[in-house]
Automatic annotation (TrEMBL):
One of its GO terms (biological process) is L-histidine catabolic process to glutamate and formate. It is an enzyme of class 4 (lyase). Contains an active site 4-methylidene-imidazol-5-one (MIO), which is formed autocatalytically by cyclization and dehydration of residues Ala-Ser-Gly. It catalyses: L-histidine = trans-urocanate + NH4(+). Its EC number is 4.3.1.3. This is Histidine ammonia-lyase. Keywords: Cytoplasm, Histidine metabolism, Lyase. Pathway: Amino-acid degradation; L-histidine degradation into L-glutamate; N-formimidoyl-L-glutamate from L-histidine: step 1/3. Belongs to the PAL/histidase family. It comes from the Bacteria.
Amino acid sequence: MVILTGKTLTFEEVKRVVFDNESVELATETCIDIEANRETVDQLIKDKKTMYGINTGFGKFSDVVIENEDLDDLQLNLIHSHACGVGEPFSEKVTRAMLLLRANALSQGCSGVRLILVKQLLNLLNSGIHPIVPEQGSLGASGDLAPLSHLALGLLGEGEVMYHGEKMEAVTALSKEGITPLTLKAKEGLALINGTQAMTAVGVVTYLEAEKLLHQSELTAAMTLEGLQGIIDAFDHDLHAARGHQEQMDVAERIRGILADSNLITKQGELRVQDAYSLRCIPQVLGACWQTINYAKEKLLIEMNAVTDNPLIFSDQNKVISGGNFHGEPIAFAMDFIKIGIAETANVAERRIERLVNPQLNDLPAFLSPNPGLESGAMIMQYSAASLVSENKTLAHPASVDSIPSSANQEDHVSMGTIAARHALQMLQNARHVVAIELICAMQAVEYRGTEQMGAITKEFYQKAREFVPSITADRIFSTDITNLANWLKDEAQSHVSLKGGVFHE
């Protein structure tokens, strides 16, 4: 059970909720804070204090004062009018993360909502009711208005949801779970949608999967080193300590640990003096990639526990402040940065694929074919990897440098952070397929060398991967192999292994 306080949510807890469907509850003291904050809002309304989005219109309409008897309708109208998303829906994992993160943000007791609203978010999360939220339509300020409006519809029993793998009307799913649709009160519609939880949810899922893929890329690169009889001296501790980047040193240490007992690697001068950059510079390149995801991790952790709506109500000082915490710039920058790391993880993997299949660059059978000429082997797998890498280069263009004014120029600078996050996740999926192709080729190469000479760690990785992709004994439809291996890397591989300090742990 994960307990929300609004301020202490961790990546490990998000992973357990989003990927493992662990239940969530509110801390007792959090419930008290939420209720006290709502009492402040109710009193301010009674006192007829003018407050943005509570008794005024929204955006350019902020100067329009709304009568008290219309305040509930104002919030419902907001949700209906702002549910303008288009395109394919976010995955259920992303939607689960959105529900969790929105509940956590509202739990700090600065948003003026009733306790029942926060509990309704958790009702959907714990019951596996996932509102269908279109991916496109957010500017990333004033928060993720369109996506979060679609999320909010589910709380009200409106729109469509996924429930136990079935698409249905939200009201039907709520009925099956005995959940009463929510009726919004003053401030609550705005509190639900004025935040960064769509971009942050996509960002968190991207980070968790990118961390896993980078570890898998290290394992795969180590197997490629075996297949090409790479030179281990380039991973020497003193060499990397002389430069001083911690992530670079960590990658080198893990590679040394993975290959410690391998008989397929060589020393400098045995076969050649030094390897090509895609082999020799694995720590430098992947270490830099780790730097990008570590930066994103730092910013995402802050945002996971941030209050990002507007206005904020501070009960202890009896004040309401309109500001811009909904602006997604910090996450936009973080996701644009992680995109570079994802792109380079795939880029250098594709170069290693080329070294594995090109007969001019190795002494293996041409394109790892069992019958070169009659059968093409892995020739076109390299084409697919090159295509994915090229596509990632276009997606890596920073979304955060763009801005289009909205709401009659009242909202005149926006972050495009949700676009950055969406592209990062798309790039990650592309990169996973590239790593899968490298792994297919690396497995074939070590078979030619003799798997009995592999290190224990890479051999175990090889044996697990072979359960999903058999050896290439003749040409076949390799698309199936790539998909199967990519799915395994996404869903299963990290549950079998993790790498810490160069030691292979079950």
